[in-house]
Specification:
globular; 43% helix; alpha/beta; 6-stranded mixed β-sheet; 5-stranded mixed β-sheet
């Protein structure tokens, strides 16, 4: 009888051990499938959050989405085997959109800051930038001589706003503190850099603080803003563009690797030159 009971208990233990082994395997599989990359691959698309501004992401005369970031994202997605899906977002809500999985990344001329690095996973920097003051050509001397009391706009949640309000600290690349320079202006946030330029053109605002990459591409000869000029003499600090993913995302390194390979084969330079950005590329 004792022998029979021993055999039964041994059998139960074997079943228990077998079950534990299966649970561990399932847990390991679940851990793997919970990776951000597995999530993206499973749905076969990378949802890319953007706002519209040249030369990064904008629409041509036919209404087709083009731009340096647009073309680079398409090239990267082709290399890593997923479809790109571009979605327009409110820039001030970009982190909420990312963390709620309405988008998988922010690929839209985003300046890398310490705060953003703490809250998101950021790719290697790929393009240089700074902040520019955009104003009407016939008022440039007046505005730069005394900006106190002027109406100034910037995109809400942008680096321009952060520099102007002092929420982005100055570093050793800064020649003039934007917070000090704009301390006596009447500041109004707007929902995009394109809107900021429209406010200046219409006369609703005296000046806009926007990315130099945007300002140089969207103003001057051959643009819709031939009456506007951009000034970068103050040098409010050097910035670098990066692509943002969810904190801890394993997609970041996969995209970094793809961009490095596309840089090595000349694809990135070709795309940059197409939009006049070749000299602003950051390469390892």
């Amino acid at each position: 009888m004792k022998k029979v009971l021993s055999l039964i208990l041994a059998g139960i233990m074997c079943i228990g051990l077998s079950s534990c082994g299966k649970t561990q395997q399932t847990d390991s599989s679940a851990s793997s499938s919970s990776s951000d990359w597995a999530y993206v691959v499973n749905k076969k698309e990378l949802i890319i959050g953007i706002t519209l501004f040249a030369p990064m992401n904008y629409k041509d005369d036919k209404g087709e989405l083009i731009g340096f970031d647009t073309d680079l994202a398409k090239a990267v997605c082709e290399k890593i085997g997923v479809e790109p899906k571009f979605v327009e977002i409110n820039w001030d809500s970009k982190e909420v959109e990312l963390n709620s999985k309405n988008i998988d990344c922010i690929w839209n001329g985003m300046c890398i800051t310490e705060e953003r690095k703490q809250n998101m996973s950021i790719s290697d920097p790929y393009l240089k930038n700074t902040q520019a003051i955009v104003m009407k050509k016939d008022r440039a001397d007046e505005i730069m001589a005394n900006i106190a009391g002027k109406n100034v706009v910037a995109e809400q949640g942008s680096t321009g706003e952060g520099k102007l309000q002092g929420t982005i600290e100055d570093d050793d690349t800064v020649k003039v503190s934007a917070k000090e320079f704009f301390k006596d202006v009447n500041y109004t946030p707007v929902d995009s850099m394109a809107k900021a330029l429209m406010e200046v053109k219409s006369g609703t605002a005296d000046a806009a603080v926007v990315d130099s990459v945007c300002a140089l591409a969207m103003t001057g000869e051959g643009s819709d803003y031939t009456d506007l000029v951009c000034n970068m003499d103050n040098n409010f600090g050097d910035q670098e563009y990066g692509i943002a993913f969810r904190k801890g995302s394993d997609v970041t390194e996969i995209v970094n690797k793809a961009i490095n390979e596309l840089t090595a084969d000349g694809t990135v330079k070709t795309i940059a030159d197409k939009y006049g950005l070749g000299s602003m590329l950051i390469t390892k």
